[in-house]
Amino acid sequence: MPDVHFLAPRAAAKRLSRRAVLAGFGVVGLGALSACGRTTKMAASPPVDGELESKLNLYSWGDYDNPDLIEAFKDEYDVLVQVDSYGSNEELIAKLSTSRGTSGYDVVVPTGSNIPQMLNHNLLQRLDLSLIPNFAHMDPNFTRQYFDPENEYSICKAWGTTGFVYDTTTIPRDLTSWQDFIDTAQQEAAGTTSLLEDPWEVSAIALAALGYSLNTEDESELEEARAIVVDQLAPNTKAYIGNVATGMIQGSFTLLQAFNGDARQGLSEVPNPDDWKFVFPTPSANLWMDNWSIATGAPHPDSAHAFINQMISPETAVDQLDYIGYPIGTKGLAEAAKQADLSEQDLIFPTQEVLDRLEPSKQTPADQIRTQIYADAQARSGA
Amino acid sequence: MSKKNTFARRTPTDIGLHVWGILVFIYLFIPIAVIIAYSFNTGRVLANFRGFGLDAYIAGLNNDIIISSVVTSLQAAVGAAIVSTVFGTLGGVALARAPKGAWWALGLTGVLALTLVTPEIVDGISFLPWFVTLGVDWGLTPLNNGLVRLIISHAMFSMAIVTFIVRARLAGIDSELEDAAADLGASPWRQFRDITLPIAAPGILAGALMSFTVSLDNTILSSFVQQPGYTPWPVYIFSAVRVALRPEVAAISTVMFLLTLAALAFVAFVLRKAGGSSTEIIKTMAG
Amino acid sequence: MSTSSQPLTDGTAEAASDRRGTEQGGTAASRTRRLSARIFGASAMSFPTWAYALFFFIIPVALVIFYSFGYKPDQFTAVATDQLSFDRYPEALSASFVTTFFATLRISILGTLLCLLIALPFAYWLAIKVSPAHRSLALALVMVPFWTNFLVRTLGWQIMLSPDGFLSQWMQGIGLLDAPLDILYTRAAVQIGVVYNYLPLMILPLFVAIDASGKKLREASYDLGAGKVTTFLRVTLPMAMPGIVSGCLLVFIPLNGDYVTATVLGGASGSMIGQLIANQFNTAQNWALGAAMAMILIIATLAVVGLGFALLWVGQRIAARLGSVPLTDGKV
Which run of H or E residues covers position A279? Predict the structure, then answer.
């Protein structure tokens, strides 16, 4: 993995957390009212005692688990599982940090790139791997990641990449690169293009086409990317959507930036899947990993560990994979999928050649520029 | 032009108005008809009609999470209606009786008006940390309960509505009735109970109905203050929309729609028995 | 009590009870009476409402307003307030903010006008042409769609308007269209959706105002020889004015801060200012900037409302001047 420069140095971390105490949690203005309000008090989680609680609160991305598996967990352990969903990591972080341990959520599913920030703010609690014996079945390619080298706080939940899907009846050409995406958006797909609802991904289209690092912090590079996004893509963009399956079904779009698993779900729903084609574009794209974690202050830690253990079980891995469309990081999953004869396997498992060129997304101070580019693009599309 | 029978004769304008009225009703009910039709969809995604069946009803009614979110919403809406009606009625009566130019009346009107102009997202952002400060730092533990949080924040929203409706209702009423009661030796409490409250009653009822409705639909604010186990129905739908809405949501919405119609028929029946007029209530509701 | 001709204010109530107190010579009973007069006095009665508003609106929202003078110190912190400045305000007024704000204003003003245009004849019909026996039912039917969740209703529209939906297929089937319906994710779809969601808020106050304008007055107008159009313009419309004003406020103010309907139906062309503010809080995690944007939105909304009232005032002055002409002008 490349250098991990977004992890703040020790001294800075101290300063950060004090600022966070003073301001981030909304108690600063109350200083006059309550002098004791100046601590980052996080509500504590009850200790793990080997006794499963009767409830479990899961806070995850929408529709991100096979409901049959959740049902099976409920039946087996007699635990009531409550699932809520969020649409972005920022939303998760805002919820956990403002509620300071009283969010009530046990299991959360942050993306790897966000984990250092969350640890910095004490939003996640340490996992007890002895309660998660199925961890032994994880593929070593997906453990010990740069954001959590000892898997003390996170275990791979699913991983995937970004590409695009297009309607071959209106776009008969063969598209292979992000530059093709930009060109097509201005020609055949003008006004019927959709982009992901994600500032990093939107900027990445232009950065990739320009041949720059997708995580660049160079302002002039980002400025070039802005020009492409705002002037070439935005005027032709019909919508910014999170999940492309809906867009593909409604039939309003011909070219959609998409996560690979969501595109596969869309293909299984549309009446004419043969008319659609998914591309792992050159030269590069995101390689992201979402992770099982336990929130600080989780009221049901025993159930939380049992749940994570159940969800990474190798026996049900194929069921989970088939439903969500993303590999979950267990050993031998690709072979199992082949045996089960799942649909569109080439969308689930990119080839090694593709994997080699992917670049995991990172949080950097330049994310603020990306957010600004995204806001400008939205304004331009809506104007 | 003759004055007689202007209203009985069917002029082209009248016919046009009738057609317009019917068209508006069609417009109001079209999307609901679509939802009802699609609730019989047996496919996995609502918008993609695969076949006709009752699967969604069975799945929806057996889904604990959906049912509990509907129940949470109803509890929060009833709670918010009660809280906002109590506070809003007091506020409305106070404002209606306020001497001209009293600073507290102008201030209260201004603050309540501001609650209506503030974007919901701002309320959401400000409420969550505040609830946590009160609940965790100050030890007001009831505020750590998700339902209490929902009720308090929804009631804040609709308190202004109830206050303004009650004030409007009382504004037209002569205060001499109360004076007369005072002359006859009625205590202020008796005056309030026997004179002010009955006069304000349609306004209070209308306000309660309105705040119930507003609470049932509240999404953005709720999604901030809600806690697991207390997810209200709109927040459930909102997160489901992000993925792809399943027919279960349409099925449960249809059930709720039918229940609403039944409840409305019941209320109309009771009102007719009691001699009240529902037109009166809706009129007051609109302020 | 001799003060009964004065309006009952808390001041006179207290004065009255004081007077009574002196008359009866300061007994315990009179003290209780005085106390309860104080409790039931208007200012005291407003206290719980004040307290609630203070505790659950003013304090928390004031905190957010305070944030608007702060800044975002680094990637990982939403807001810091150790240095205060007005810098966030010019920053909030970026080009994209202004563009989106005017796009929003266009959606909400057009939405309010369309609501008024649809609701005015409808409310007139409801108040005057529908028989009183059916009026309650008709009014209830206006309210009924309100009780189905607004997202579900909006999704009903989304299904309706989608190019692969049944409306599109049916219209193509009968030859009304030769290509799939292309309205979803356009401005037209946004207008249909927002007008739909806010229409009842316009109908109800209009209905009440027209209903209150009274049949008698209209008949009197006919008696004086005024025609239908004159009666509508000179009697019904002026009497409906308070309803029009409150209806427009009820629609315009929340619509200007809304964004959910527009996003579901409009995609990129439904991008509204509320979304931009929500993005600052939810995505960019820049609470200082988000708070500043929210403040600007609140002030701008109030300014537009103020401008509306100013126009109305000017209009009324002009109407009043024209109104000095006899009612029967050009009609006998």
Answer: strand A276-279
Return the closest-CA partner of residue C281 out of A18, B220, A217, A107. B220
Interatomic CA distance for residues C226 and C332, integer angstroms? 7
DSSP C221: H
C204: nearest CA partner in chain B: B286
Is A5 part of a structural domain of the chain?
A: no
Domain range holding A183?
A: 161-286+354-381
Between CA B31 and CA C195 the distance in angstroms is 13
Helix (H) / strand (E) containing A351: none
C303–chain A nearest CA distance, Å: 23
Phi first, then psi, for residue B94 (nearest 5°) are -60, -45
3-state DSSP assignment of residue A60: strand
Chain A, chain C: beta-carbon pairs less than 8 Å apart: 131
Calculated CA dihedral for residues C134, C136, C138, C143, nearest 10 degrees: -170
Assess B63–A contact: CB distance below 8 Å, yes or no.
Answer: no
Q: Are residues C119 and C48 in the same domain?
A: no
User: Within this chain, do residues A145 and A171 fall inside the same structural domain, yes or no?
Assistant: no
Joined tokens for residue B28? 């109001």
For chain A, list residues whose CB is within 8 angstroms of any CB belonging to chain B. 25-27, 30, 34, 36-37, 41, 43, 55, 57-59, 62-63, 80, 82-87, 95, 98-105, 242-243, 245-246, 249-250, 269
Q: What is the pLDDT of residues C162-201, one digit of tens each?
A: 887 778 888 888 888 788 877 888 888 889 999 998 898 8
Question: CA–CA distance from B58 to each of A73, B61, B246, B254, B265 (Å)?
Answer: 21, 5, 13, 13, 26
The pair of three-digit structure tokens given for residue B9, joined into one six-digit string: 């004769």
Are C182 and C269 in the same domain? yes
Q: Tell me: ipTM over 0.85.
A: no
In whole angstroms, what is the distance from residue C306 CA to residue A92 CA? 39
CA distance linking residue B200 with residue B193, whole number of Å: 10
What is the biggest distance separating any 2 CA atoms in chain C, rounded to whole angstroms?
92
Domain that holds residue C30: 2-62
The total domain count for chain A is 2
Residues C190-231 have pLDDT tens digits of: 899 999 988 988 888 888 788 776 666 777 777 777 777 777
Q: Which residues of A touch B137 (CB under 8 A)?
A: 27, 34, 36-37, 41
